[in-house]
Design brief:
The protein has 288 residues and is α+β, with helices and mostly antiparallel strands. The protein has five helices and ten strands. It has a single domain (2-156, 163-277), classed as Hypothetical Protein Pfu-838710-001. The longest helix is centred in the last third of the chain and has 17 residues, at 246-262. It is globular and about 50 Å long.
Length: 288
Amino acid sequence: MYEIFMTTTVEDADFTPACSVLEGLCSMKPWESVIRVLYYQGPPRPAGLSNQTSMEKPIRKNLAPLWRELHQNLSRQAFVLQARYEILKHRDFGPEATPMDLDATPGILRWTDFPDPPHGKPLLTQRKLVELWEQRALPSILNDNQHQYAYTFPQRTSIRPANDRRRLKGETIEETYRFFREDVEFSLTRHYMFKSILTYQPHVSGTGRGSPPATSLPAWDDITPVDSQWRWIVQVKTHVLQDNKPDEIRKAQDTLIALRNELDGVFDFRAIDRKVFDTRIVLRQQGV
């Protein structure tokens, strides 16, 4: 599957007006979601997902092709993967919340490829995407296949390269408000970390797996936006299920360009260097 999207930011003071515009455009109130996002870094020598010990058996027929595609991509290149869990503000934060058993909780395993070159459409980012929904035991599956709970800066939080060496502990909270019009999704997203950015230590390669994901989360009011200016990331995106059909991809691109013109003067979509969305792990040769 391909996802194609445009990106910009809005100030926190403009969040409510931006939502009002999208409510009118899509004739709907926003869908709010809060996602706990864990980042897992692939091994130095890519080996795919050969170890299936922790996977639910039998593998569902509709998911088998996606597991196979993901395995093939992780066999050629190491990436940072996301394990994503939907949570609730009133239930899952603070000292009174029930501890999370991540292996027992269904989640989404997400992989995104390095985006394609812009090919004359600099406002659009286009990349392959694999998502496996309703998957249990994701931490065990990833650990079984030498994917480490990573120190990684999420690629969309501050519009900075994902392989930037300024790296944070391997999870964030993602707050998103979504609107839909036909096959197009409009979203405003803000990422949070558990404490101030000044308290994080830079990642040093070769230091081992480190501590596992936390079983409990701080109170909602105690988490800190990654962006010190509290801005929201705005994306307008659509998906093409068959990524081997160029006509469908061009149709999706034309739809987004038309929306960009429709929203001109409201959102200032801009060209984003595709390295911002790069989740590949750069491997160093020994002795270099």
